[in-house]
Design a protein that fits this description.
Blueprint (H helix, E strand, L loop, with lengths): L3 E2 L10 E6 L4 H8 L3 E6 L2 H9 L9 E5 L5 H11 L7 E6 L4 H9 L4 E4 L4 H31 L4 H32 L5 E7 L5 E7 L6 H11 L25 H8 L7 H7 L3 E3 L4 E2 H4 L16 E3 L1 H5 L8 H14 L2 H14 L7
């Protein structure tokens, strides 16, 4: 066994431990991560497996960084780690020398934390590893926050009554329109009528979020690339720092999808979410998990203490405008979470009608 422990920089203020397996990217990893991380290098996955088997609860690493091997040993290793009581909390990041859709799908099924394909920027990996460790430490606090929200934070009866009246009434009267839209989607492109995704709402609660499908069926796979190249919010500091993702002139949208989005007809299935109590008519937009995990600081977690909603201050003030900054959107969300009321909701509902038809394609 050829273990080599990297020099530890005490002045970095970090104590992140990495168990690494592989030789192809070893020099790149050493050059980019030795300063600030404590790395245990292993030439093979078998050696890494032996190393992990020697660890105790006090010495288990924070991160497992593994080069994907051609024989597929990495799959067995990840499965064993996931099933281990001691190692199940490990952050798992994979590195691959070539792009392979099948590998990525397998990694996603195994629920690894990230997958990088060469060529990759070591600075991106460094920042991602730091974030994953910080989020791992924050997550238990978020779970506690969710419990507090569930017991101490109740939606006002008047607001819930308005939600039931509006969502129930609109579902009844708009059911013919929704049927026509469903038929048009089926005729326009292959794929399901509805798009379902996991969203984070009040108190960081995750729920199934419904929309009429307006994109190609491979839209989720294209998101990572487009969020780097076309993200509206990336202008403030690049893809690394942008918490929200909004694609300019999104090529994933179908021909019919453009009309559905510009008319907001794609949002109609969320009336079902409102009826169920997942969200409200007015509130802060529930976010995809990859966005929500970027908003866990004390400054911005406030937005999750207000109701999740179909429409809100963002939609009626600057939705679709090129000058909408990430910070402005966060501030609008925080303001609503602190100041929402039935009267404010009624004003927002009235202001939503002219905001439904947006001009800019963002």
């Amino acid at each position: 066994m050829n273990h080599q422990t990297a020099n530890w920089n005490e002045s970095s203020g970090s104590n992140i431990r990495i168990a690494y397996a592989g030789t192809e990217f070893k020099d790149v990893i050493a050059a980019g991560l030795n300063d600030g991380f404590k790395i245990e290098y292993n030439d093979t996955i078998a050696q890494l497996n032996d190393y992990l088997g020697e660890q105790s609860i006090l010495s288990v690493p924070d991160i497992m960084l593994v080069e994907v091997d051609a024989e597929g040993q990495w799959v067995k290793l990840v499965e064993e780690v996931k099933s281990s009581f001691l190692l199940s909390g490990l952050i798992i990041v994979l590195l691959s020398s070539h792009s392979d859709k099948t590998l990525k799908q397998k990694a996603a099924k195994l629920r690894v934390h990230d997958f990088y394909t060469a060529p990759f920027a070591i600075s991106d990996i460094r920042e991602r590893l730091n974030f994953l460790v910080r989020f791992k430490l924050i997550k238990p606090k978020l779970l506690e926050l969710s419990k507090v929200v569930d017991t101490a934070y109740k939606m006002p009866a008047g607001k819930r009554f308005i939600d039931l009246v509006i969502s129930g009434g609109m579902l009844f009267f708009l059911s013919p329109v929704m049927l026509v839209v469903a038929i048009m989607i089926k005729l326009d492109s292959k794929g399901p009528v509805f798009y379902k995704s996991k969203r984070v709402g009040t108190g960081y609660k995750v729920f199934d979020f419904y929309k009429f499908r307006s994109m190609r069926t491979d839209a989720d796979q294209l998101l990572a690339k487009l969020s780097q190249e076309n993200n509206q919010y990336a202008a403030e500091g690049g893809e690394k720092t942008a918490a929200f993702v909004k694609i300019k002139n999104d090529p994933r949208i179908t021909k019919l999808g453009n009309f559905l989005r510009n008319s907001s007809l794609d949002e109609l299935p969320q009336l079902y979410n409102i009826l169920r109590g997942d969200m409200s008519v007015v509130g802060n937009r529930p976010l995809p998990i990859y966005e929500a995990e970027m908003l866990t600081s004390n400054e911005w977690s406030m937005r999750f203490l207000g109701p999740a909603g179909l429409t809100g201050l963002w939609q009626i003030s600057k939705r679709g405008k090129e000058d909408m900054s990430e910070r402005e959107r966060k501030k609008l969300d925080n303001f609503y979470a602190q100041k929402y009321s039935v009267w404010l909701d009624l004003k927002i509902i009235v202001g939503t009608v002219p905001a439904l038809f947006q001009k800019e394609k963002v």
